[in-house]
């Protein structure tokens, strides 16, 4: 069942709330969502109800019923996104010549908000703003079943090379970094602050009620060794509960469901208060984290992107990590939330449904909440005798200077337990002196541009990873060489899935590098790989996007 349909059910269950909040405009809205608490159940009168699941089909391959949808010629005129939503502009880095720029360096990114936000827009019949598309977040949303690292290592690595699906002149290099997993019984205790935007702009069914449902699911997973605080912010800040034991679930849920939405949005005050509480209840050697839930529509105190960046940077060395959860539509400020996560030792997810909340906060809780390595950087050196040019797909907001790789003062991304990071490079290989694209040349000796002598080095690349273990500030460096021994004419299912996710992002962004990308290719290539809910969903989204962008 699609998330769009689930949201429609949620909308029906929350119609009373919508009737009272439909004219709420965010910044100065005064409409209030009243909550209630009963002894037998923790809820408010605006909870999101989950659509029933058909577990008998979970994990099974798709039948052909989706083909009727695929061939449906029905077309509704797409909407454009509200001008009150904000996305940061960026420029794609494009192809690089390894003779001039042999090193490609970037901070890892485990965020997925760009993909789930695009899902929301497509399911609502809207065009996806080009600047909202960050290809790496599309790629990293999916699971690629990388092997676990060897005993004693923090990361394992995976490399695969195959033909590029959208450009017959190129190869595609898939690089995967797999973080070690931590058994549940070995997880450290948590000190978590729920920082909840309770301003008037959060009064719609897909905001505060969904936040409450999401956090209640996480609260149920906590133990007596965990500490929980709840801070809300609107025109002012309020501490609802401070340092409670995870076993005090009734108190936590009562505080959670007593929150109502009204007033302005003093995000600065909320962040300051949340970090104060996190520091007060700090657990040495534990998981100390602030989880911010908001639509990003800040209007009191420091609220510009640059001001928020400076504010959160000042908290970065406190040993407290940040998870940013985005909610809602219409006034969503993706640019501000990305800035907070990127500069505050954090990760960033967009929650558009109960199912996504469960995925982020329950099913993938270890990866979301428990950091195993910080300041994780990747650097790839390309051999100019083998690679004519290369292009990193995505990570345009995460690029670093080559020398930053060895600078332990430079901030980079964090990786959680069991999390993986995937990067794709499109590369064009050099030609032999006497061939052109594999075709023997009669007049090879007459050509002036002679490729660089290989000097016996046949490797394509050197892959290097730098990171700091969670309990240390000493940098660990790891590297390996690889070449065409990683090439396969029959790519793996993981490779096909990653390339399809990249194509989807390129089509939505309408990038100049999309080549022969098509929604048809995405649909057809994933059909044989549709063995889980995420992959099935990608097919459905590609079908809907093809209709929208016809």
Describe the protein.
47% of the residues are buried. With 550 residues, the chain is an alpha+beta fold. Helix 13 (493-509) packs antiparallel against helix 14 (519-527). It is built from 15 helices and 17 strands. The protein has a domain at 184-369: 3-Layer(aba) Sandwich (Rossmann fold), CATH 3.40.50. The model is unreliable at 5-67 (pLDDT under 50).
Helix and strand topology:
Elements: H1 3-13, H2 15-21, H3 65-70, E1 103-107, H4 113-123, H5 135-139, E2 155-163, E3 171-179, E4 190-197, H6 208-219, E5 227-233, E6 237-245, H7 249-257, H8 267-280, E7 287-294, H9 305-313, E8 321-327, H10 334-343, E9 346-351, H11 354-363, H12 365-369, E10 371-382, E11 387-392, E12 413-416, E13 420-429, E14 435-436, E15 439-440, E16 461-469, E17 476-482, H13 493-509, H14 519-527, H15 533-548
Provide a quick synopsis of the model:
The protein has 550 residues and is of the alpha+beta class. The chain is built from 15 helices and 17 strands.
How many angstroms does the end-to-end distance come to?
24 Å
Q: What is the 3D shape?
A: globular
Count, helices: 15
> Which percent band covers the strand fraction?
15-25%
Spatial sequence of strands, sheet with the most strands: 6-5-4-7-8-9
- Looking at CATH, the homologous superfamily of the domain at 184-369 is von Willebrand factor, type A domain
The number of strands is 17
- Reported by name, the CATH topology of the domain at 184-369 is Rossmann fold
Helix content: 25-40%
